Amino acid sequence: MSSAGTNAFVLEGVRRSFTHFALQDITLTLPLGQIMGLVGPNGAGKSTTIRLLMGLLHPDAGRIEMLGHSIPAEAAAAKEEVAFVSDDMRLFGTATLQWHMDWMASMFARWDARFAQELLSRFNLRAGQAVERMSQGEHVKALLLLALARRPRLLVLDEPTSGLDPVARHELLTELMQVVREEDRSILFSSHHTADVERICDQIAFIDRGRLVAASDRESFLERWRRLLVDLPPGSAPPRIAHTVDLSLGGRVASLTTDRYDGELHARIEAAGARVLEVQRMTLEEIFVAIVMKSRQEGMA
Amino acid sequence: MNRSVFWALVRKDLYLRRAMIIAILVVGLGSLVLASFGGRAFAVGGLLFLTANVAGGLFMAALSLFGERRALARGFALSLPVSGRYYDLSKLVSGFLAFGIPWLVLTVAAVGGMFLPGGMPGMAVYALLIQLFVIAQFAVVLAAYSCITSEAVSGVVILFVNVALSLFMMQINQPEILGPWRGDAIVWTPFARVTLLAELAVIAVAVAFTYIMASRRRDYI
């Protein structure tokens, strides 16, 4: 069934194998107007997933649809409304940014020259500068300018902040957030910087070793995941609580990580004879590490 | 296919290769002027002319395909509304235009120069066969570069086409082959006819090969 009109993209049971790596059964949907963060360690399969989505790789199995177009067959048509920026992407070195802007304007009827000029000053870029003389941060901003001024319905960003120093990364994300806040645009943003993803994304998908290990909206992740410090009675074993993702012991205090936190959890722990000392919220990075570790343990079992 | 994107990619390559196009033209035409002085200048000019053509073609093919891949600009080009197949075809078209334009000017100048006062019109066949060999060589290199990713293999391709050029030059300069052209009459000897057909066939096969490879390619990373 086509998801045109409701979803920015759909990946269903997508697989792709290489000699030393396989992407397995990726199923992921991004509703229109939402921002999804694709998070995973280096080599997890983020870029492969994105290249499959963009039609740059053919899947071995599964279905891919982007803005109602079947991928890879209709990738060229889909890319009319999709802009893609990747950390390993470069502009044409000897040409200036102005040349790139004019070139893009000649291709895209929806090219917004006024917006491009606005981004130029907002990103503090010089149009007459040859691309090869730009710093890494300027280069990423130039790529983003060219992507955004096309007014795409879907923006795909593959590790755009990789290789930037923390200040440039912060600056870039601030600018990006400001721009996307003004627009009703769908974004897929891949990164291994969970803090970046936490800042800008509504939906988060975690990927590790070619498998999608969790996907949900950001609030669900942040609300459901907790680390509880539990005081155990002398000589007793830690309570067996459902949905415990990780359990570590330090003397009488157990640290219990759960992915289904609710008010009843206290009662269940205390009914088991233990006492909850503290409930800690978890950052997305901590959640990510816990999910990946659990997934790897399950994979080894 | 989005035609405007396809032609924009071709235009882009011509713009980025403009310095190389001008360099081939300047060196090529300059060497023809030098050759027109005759004697030793003719030999030096002829060698320079051939070098401008051959090296220009090899550099053009390498810059166009390997250059864009190495500089990671191919990812940017492929992010545009163009299929991988048409991206490859844009490379074929822009490659032939970027090298074909200076090649055509130099061919017209070299062949036409034989008809100028003091020239030897019969040698127009000789000049044309050499120039067609050069464009056939370019077509082979472009076809090879469009489907190989290893720079080591590309070195083997360069070696192969250079050996082929050396053998061809040895053959075409044999006195019995060159003899019939040393006059005012245009003579299409059996050697000239076979060579002409072989060169045109190589160009056709190389172009068809590039087109088929572009149509079959599935992955662009």
Which features characterize this protein?
heterodimer; A: 301 residues; alpha/beta; Rossmann fold; 6-stranded mixed beta sheet; 4-stranded antiparallel beta sheet; 10 helices; elongated; B: 221 residues; mainly alpha; 9 helices; 0% strand
Description:
The complex is a heterodimer of chains A (301) and B (221). Helix content of chain A is 34%, strand content 30%. In chain A, the strands form three sheets. Chain A has a six-stranded mixed β-sheet with strand order 6-7-8-3-9-10, with helices on both faces. A four-stranded antiparallel β-sheet of chain A has the order 2-1-4-5. Chain A has a four-stranded antiparallel β-sheet with strand order 12-13-11-14, with helices on both faces. In chain A, helix 4 packs antiparallel against helix 5. In chain B, helix 2 packs antiparallel against helix 3 and helix 3 runs antiparallel to helix 5. Chain B starts with a helix and ends in a 5-residue tail after the last helix. Chains A and B meet through helix 2, strand 6 and helix 3 of A and helix 1 and helix 4 of B.
